[in-house]
């Protein structure tokens, strides 16, 4: 029996704030879970800048269930870790 993944937009559940860091393919921003007010750091990957292999590896990792991607949109993380000191 196949399992189904419900896709939601990240911004439906989290509010994004300022940039905390930046790399060649991603940016890290402070965010807050709207329902709880808990703050987190979200790593946002620009898949347009990834090579075909990099994009494949990202999709393969998502397929293993840690952070599923749905049509380019990420579901909220299952392994949320609050920002230290918040």
Report on the structure:
There is one protein chain. The chain is of the alpha+beta class. Helices cover about 20% and strands about 35% of the residues. It has helices at about 10-15, 50-65; strands spanning about 15-20, 25-35, 40-45, 70, 75. Strands 1-2-3 form a three-stranded antiparallel β-sheet. Strands 4-5 form a two-stranded antiparallel sheet. The chain is globular and about 35 Å long. It starts with 9 loop residues before the first helix and ends in a 12-residue tail after the last strand. GO terms for molecular function: ATP binding; protein kinase activity. Keywords: ATP-binding, Nucleotide-binding. This is Protein kinase domain-containing protein.
- Per DSSP, the total helix count is 2
Oligomer: single chain
Going by CATH, the homologous superfamily would be Phosphorylase Kinase, domain 1
Percentage of helical residues?
10-25%
Average pLDDT confidence is 74
- String of helices and strands: HEEEHEE
The overall strand count is 5
Strand line-up of the largest beta sheet: 1-2-3
Report the radius of gyration as a whole number of Å. Answer: 14 Å
Percent of residues in β-strands:
25-35%
Morphology call: globular
> SS-based structural class?
alpha+beta
CATH architecture group name: 2-Layer Sandwich
**Which stretches of 5+ consecutive residues score pLDDT under 50?**
67-76
Q: Calculate the terminal CA-CA distance, rounded to whole Å.
A: 41 Å
């Amino acid at each position: 029996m196949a399992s189904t993944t419900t896709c939601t937009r990240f911004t439906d559940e989290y509010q994004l704030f300022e940039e905390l860091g930046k790399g060649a393919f991603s940016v890290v921003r402070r965010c807050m879970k709207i329902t709880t007010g808990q703050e987190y750091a979200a790593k946002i990957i620009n898949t347009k800048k990834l090579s075909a292999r990099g994009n494949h590896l990202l999709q393969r990792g998502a397929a293993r269930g840690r952070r599923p991607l749905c049509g380019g949109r990420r579901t909220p993380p299952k392994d949320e870790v609050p920002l230290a000191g918040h």
